Amino acid sequence: MQDKVVYILMLPGPFKSSEELVERAGLIAYTAKENHAKKVVLLTTDFPSARQDRGPDEDEKARGEPTTVRWRARQFKAAGIDEVITTHEHSPRISSFFALEYGLIPKDWLSEEARGLKPEQVKVPVHLSPSNAEIQQLGRKVFKSINPYSILADYLLHHSSLAKEASIFRNEGERLVLKAMDKGNRAFIDNLYSALFMKNASLIYCNKARTAKNDPKAVEVTIADVSPNFTTLENKIEIYADDGLDTGGTMLKAGEWSDKGNYCANGKRSYGVPSDRIMYF
């Protein structure tokens, strides 16, 4: 391994927990660096604990739980991993924690009381905000995410069950409705729409709220906006696309809510019931 670049594949599966995968990846990285590898790159299609990017000081619902994303960054740094490449990141906040734990943030960007602290001693959000776009950009020197919207577009058009029915794509996709389930999902849905090259496909933008953490029943979904060409979901195919599942509560609740008519917040207007749907995660 002397002066070599080592790539580690960390792929999710049914037989290993995320903790076991991280432990194995860390041990391999440590071994590589101990044997004088020049660089270690971790490739992971599904970043472990990606949804745990808020601790108790930022979110009351996380009381008693850790900011696991930050802990992952600290583990990878200690193991000697120089770069992490993943797909469809849950939140741009993740890269901020890598910027912090890898010591990439200039001291004068921190609050005055934190400038003499080690990275692990810096408190979030007291000393810095992970939502800061400049800090996020610094973190991308280590943590990099590939957006798979073009891959999903190709799958939908040529390899999915929809591809077997040409009528679905007739008239430039007028039967397709792309649905963003929350604010964080909107950019991905917009990119997917552009990659499909179906100008008559329409879009629905939803808002999602959790009244309790990790409780599938405590998810509320409402429609916030629709594209100008949207008319109804009746006889349409709705497409959900999210970066992953935690409890699965959002997807399940969204499907149930859609089957009941996609009513707006005040319950006075129904956006229609689709004839079918595809869920990607």
| Rg, Cα atoms, Å | 21 Å
- Total strand segments: 9
The percentage helix is 25-40%
Describe the main β-sheet briefly.
Answer: 5 strands, mixed
Overall shape: it is globular
Q: Could you name the ranges where pLDDT drops below 50 across 5 or more consecutive residues? A: none
Measured between the Cα atoms of the first and last residue, the distance is: 36 Å
In terms of DSSP E residues, the strand content is 15-25%
Taking all residues together, what is the mean pLDDT?
Answer: 87
Helix/strand order, N-terminal first: EHEHEHHEHHEHEEEHE
Q: Please count the helical segments.
A: 8
Order of strands in the sheet with most strands: 7-6-5-8-9
- Class by alpha and beta content: alpha/beta
Give an account of the 3D structure.
The structure is a single chain. The chain is an alpha/beta fold and 281 residues long. The chain is built from eight helices and nine strands. It has helices spanning 18-34, 68-79, 93-101, 133-139, 149-158, 170-173, 186-196, 249-259; strands at residues 5-9, 39-44, 83-87, 143-146, 176-180, 202-210, 219-226, 237-241, 276-280. Strands 7-6-5-8-9 form a five-stranded mixed beta sheet, with helices on both faces. Strand 1, helix 1 (18-34) and strand 2 form a beta-alpha-beta unit.
Which key terms come to mind for this protein?
281 residues; alpha/beta; 8 helices; globular
At a glance:
With 281 residues, the protein is α/β, with parallel strands linked by helices.
